[in-house]
Request: fold
Amino acid sequence: MKDSICRFTGRKLNTILDFGKQPLGNGFLYPDQFDNEYFFDMSIGFSEETFMLQLNEQPAPEKMFHEEYAFYSSTSKNMGLHFKKFAEDLLKSDYLKKEDPFIVELGCNDGIFLNHVSKQKIRHLGIEPSVNVAKVANERGVKTLSDFFSERLSKKLAKDYGKVDAFIAANVMCHIPDLKDIIKGIKKILNKKGVLIFEDPYLGDVIQKNSYDQIYDEHVYIFSALAVQKIFNMFDMELIDLQPQSTHGGSMRYFISHKGSYELSNNVEEIIKKEINLGLNKESTFRNFSTNIQNSKIELRELLKTLKSQGKKIAGYGATSKSTTILNYCNIGPDLIDYITDTTPIKQKKFSPGMHIPIVDYKYFKDNPPDFAFLFAWNHSNEIMEKESGYTNSGGKWITHIPNVRVI
Ligand code: JHZ
Reply:
């Protein structure tokens, strides 16, 4: 297995698991694109110095985020509610108790968060590299720039718009390989009492739920509080608060400021203590994680093969980026899963990355209910179970791999 280099220390990373050749998590495609499909070697490494779990290699950002990016944040009702509450909490927080505050959001997607800020006529700017989703944000009244953020861009933004009071990033920071440049940029543009608030899928949940499907091309890091504290300290910035979130199967919201600007909340010490108890600072924990992933693969293939041999129809529910890892790592194709249903129009009539399972609209699922539905969008389980009580009550069964492979 190929070892790589920690993006923060420049020293060797110890490879934890090799997932083999993987396509882009959101690389849904048409049959005439099968022959030229892009694959990369996906493996993860851990640094005991920075406590950072990271991809050894990642495709170039332009390959992943472009004018046909397939993920629209506003496809889930609950995510809409989550971002509304996030905006309301921020707007009434002490961080914004000043005249004419300025909020910037990195990776604002279709404006799911900033539309609540723009409605209040508060100065804001979204920065979103994927042109198609940025267009939706602009149409919604969210002032959005389509670009990749960097230290260089931050200098220009500070000049054009002034310094920032709250710099937000939801499900974005874990996508950025050169985080050092981003942190330098944020440090430059943040007011003295400004705060960076970001949230991402949380390593503690990934380890406890064995949700290895959070690992795909876009997620170059899976953060813990230990790792976030360590890397921001390198830039004279400080982790001042933490708030666990239920979104995306367990996320963490991190609050960062210039060093010495705020008192540390007790949550920081408490959560770091829990992480040490869970072993998130030790390579051995990730070795166990690797074994659990390999066992999950064996069990999942066995279950699907057995059901198929009994003539059962199996569909996937939600063509998530996460499902790309499950399908390709476990070698599950149309021989085991008949189709995947998804409500996102840009994914429909295409095929899943790598394994080429057809993606169909929701009506197809309704008209052709399977015997078993694999809950790929397991992080939206409450919303989906409520919506699909009819399928469940009429005998439809669900398959999950979280935290272990089973029929629900
Ligand atoms: P969902 C994305 O990951 C990509 P994904 C990204 N890299 C990231 O970091 C995370 O989000 C945070 C569909 N669906 O949210 C819609 C239904 O069909 O789990 C979506 O395509 N019916 C930015 O892709 C997918 O499932 C439904 O009822 O893993 C959900 O994708 C619902 C609720 C969803 O994120």
About this structure: DSSP finds 14 helices and 17 strands in the chain. The pocket of JHZ is lined by residues 71, 75-76, 171, 218, 248, 318-322, 342-344, 377, 379-380, 383-384, 387 (CB under 6 Å).
